[in-house]
Amino acid sequence: MADQIPLYPVRSAAVAAASHKRAAYYSAAGPGPGANRRGRYQLEDESAPLDEMPLMMSEEGFENDESDYHTLPRARITRRKRGLEWFVCGGWKFLCTSCCDWLINVCQRKKELKARTVWLGCPEKCEEKHPRNSIKNQKYNVFTFIPGVLYEQFKFFLNLYFLVVSCLQFVPALKIGYLYTYWAPLGFVLAVTITREAIDEFRRFQRDKEMNSQLYSKLTVRGKVQVKSSDIQVGDLIIVEKNQRIPSDMVFLRTSEKAGSCFIRTDQLDGETDWKLKVAVSCTQRLPALGDLFSISAYVYAQKPQLDIHSFEGTFTREDSDPAIHESLSIENTLWASTIVASGTVIGVVIYTGKETRSVMNTSNPKNKVGLLDLELNQLTKALFLALVVLSVVMVTLQGFAGPWYRNLFRFLLLFSYIIPISLRVNLDMGKAVYGWMIMKDENIPGTVVRTSTIPEELGRLVYLLTDKTGTLTQNEMVFKRLHLGTVSYGMDTMDEIQNHVLNSYLQVHSQANGSNPSSAPLRRTPSSTPKVKKSVSSRIHEAVKAIALCHNVTPVYEARTGVTGETEFAEADQDFSDENRTYQASSPDEVALVHWTESVGLTLVSRDLASMQLKTPGGQVLTYYILQMFPFTSESKRMGIIVRDESTAEITFYMKGADVAMSTIVQYNDWLEEECGNMAREGLRTLVVAKRTLTEEQYQDFESRYSQAKLSIHDRTLKVAAVVESLEREMELLCLTGVEDQLQADVRPTLEMLRNAGIKIWMLTGDKLETATCIAKSSHLVSRTQDIHIFRPVTSRGEAHLELNAFRRKHDCALVISGDSLEVCLRYYEHELVELACQCPAVVCCRCSPTQKAHIVTLLRQHTGKRTCAIGDGGNDVSMIQAADCGIGIEGKEGKQASLAADFSITQFRHIGRLLMVHGRNSYKRSAALGQFVMHRGLIISTMQAVFSSVFYFASVPLYQGFLMVGYATIYTMFPVFSLVLDQDVKPEMAILYPELYKDLTKGKAYSLACGTIVWVFLCGIIMYGALVLFEAEFVHVVAISFTALILTELLMVALTIRTWHWLMVVAEFLSLGCYVASLAFLNEYFGIGRISFGTFLDVAFITTMTFLWKVSAITVVSCLPLYVLKYLKRKLSPPSYSKLSS
What we know:
alpha+beta
């Protein structure tokens, strides 16, 4: 259908000319990268008219609607504006940005990274100047610290507003009260922030200093010298001991291990916990003594510094030998900085330092995350500022613009400035610290760590949860489940049959080898000489098990038994190979599972070095195989191979295993592989296809010469090497298909069900293949049994994507499964439509996703829906996704700690996410909203009373409460009860988990929007309170004492009315605040006059104790609180919240 889509409409002459010119330019570029680009431009240009095509067209319309193409508007051809018209229509902006970019480039002028030649032990021979090898994680230096911290604070409108208000107090005409009433709160906020940042910065400085001053042994002509990590230079020869950190990127020259290889731990670099095998350069490893490194003239040619930690191209050259020795260097000859030596002592030559090391180039500065509540508060602050300006203008207008009205306007702005309370920021930040502490102290989710303390309330507002599969939903613990030979399949219950077959076949071979009959030898070789003869099941099983036991990158490691000195050499020397002392190390848990399985059926891997490996048969005989070549697994090739020579028969065999998509074209024709791969994938098993090819000596020698030649080339090395290896990958004999199960994490199903009931949409983003991902989605109940699954067909062009999206649009309430390649195509042409359709699905599974694609999907969701997203993962490949989401959660798993260190919250098991969101997310959001509301109320009440006071006093811009009263009101008198709201909870934790539907209410964001309704009531309360005071004109001189006391009591009562679950600390806070106020009445009597319009009578203690004072204060308090209480009571009766039905 898609083939018939007319993608070549008639084009206007202008477009044709332009594309012709472009084509000419790219063809002139020669057959390099330009050639490929030309094709891409052409396609883009020709498919452009589809831009205006409506997505929902019938298929016939899509095919036949050619007439529209001629009339479509061309977005790209626009008349170029010239001169003044260009400058006015945005040209000025273009000029400004160009100038700024030029200035930045001049200031920062980055040095261009180049390939380099590094002479062994001669740093002085370096032509270029390379960066210092110092680690620097500090955000600021001595000069930028204060400006940097202040900028971070004052970029928020709230803080900037206070700075301006406080600065205006230095103008005598605008001075309202004492300076400390404005500067003390602002100073406190800044002092807390600066202190916190300074402590963090000092800790970073100490960590950096500790790393930079670590001592290493440097090899010189005069012997070993101790040198600091920060003083290491390119070209130095550095010795790194076991369990020591590698200080810079090096090429591995020598090791104390006899095999010429060592293991390193890379969990700090790529998040993988498995050890990696590294190989020393054979030319330098063969030198008799360490000092001989200075007696040879040799250099390393290294490519320019790059981001990719999994590849390296270089050459090692020794000039003083005849002929010169050239050796190719790859990733296995490198030791990257920040990795740790796990075995032996290594010597390397430094090739990259400081900012040019792989680890530093791969660290991105994570963005500062700001919670939705903080953004809403910032918007509300702006709205309140507008209200403040309007109120001040009204006051000046009622004054009749008399006298210097603009000065009065500013004075009113300052008088009412308490509408926006500065204590809001302090209260919320302290609240967040408390929530973080509560999360970490929760015994039901042990090991949880809050790494970003600024966004705990985000956990209560999530709509999308994007999760990784391996290690997050599954345990990343592989168990061998199935072996399929084409005609016969073995499961867990029939493994003993395989064991018997292996035992018999080795006993047979052993007896033949020891037999006296000379004709026994040809009998044994019959299968290889005449492959057309159908093999018995027993021999096929024997071949398959042997292939699985040989084709891998696993190394057995034996723990030393005697102290620290007898390392692996001891275990190797005595050839004991005891089973309980052996552990397997590999970069993939799948491989370890396969080797464990071959051990269980009788064929055990007992030792391995660079040149050979040894297998122990069920009879106890040790077979040796020499490793001739090794082709490691890559994500591009999706397969790995090995060429081995059997010591006893000298037979050369090429074994290969890999994913079915890669292997199906390599193996000989068969009719069962594809079907069985599908069957295993539906069971949730990870499949690997194993194949072999027997090589003659001539074939191998020819291959080796071509392979060595390809490995030495500098340009396009990977392509040339891949081409040589592919020449071997033809007509391979298919041996078997293996199935390995990755078990689900504990309680994954109930947790996913709880999240779904809470209204959270779950997307699974995985690098695994489509069938396995679909199967895990079903088994984990990510997709419920009754739901349909729409598997998005692979699409490569725009037309196919168009038709497939239309087909998907017709489906209703079904889960979507899409692969990374199809996703890329759809996002290129129909980004908005795809996201819109996917958001309507109950669940989405994206398979074959790269780490950058995962992050891109998160960003798209945030941009298109405006809803809060959460990403959860456990490996280094999930870090970009975790950092892109509004809220990132990392799991400490088999793949290391990289994800958990980069995340905002770190948990130990997936099931903990349920309690984290339902209980802590709910409480943090609800409490922060209540806290924010109350702090706002405090400011509004004061400002309202000031407004009424000023209007009664002929609109005079005179403060009602002065000095310490204002500071005390925001802090000591009301702070404790208001802050005690962080202990309040509307629903018990058990209820919140039992009824996850309650979470849906939170995502609507109503908890904070209630503030608007309450604000109106605060205004009314202020007016009632002051209106009542106007009625008592006889004691008007005591207005400050009466109103302020009523105000404090009202605040304390309002907090008490709001609390839903009482805590003993809340009661203490209420009485403590009241006690503080009563005690301070005696000391602060000079403040209780009416500002500067003093009536000559100040507060006396005798008046406070009179019944008149007490009943008036009580009356005003009741009048102001009663309407609010009645309103809340009615609201709860008429429109009860969903949780009230449960709590009753």
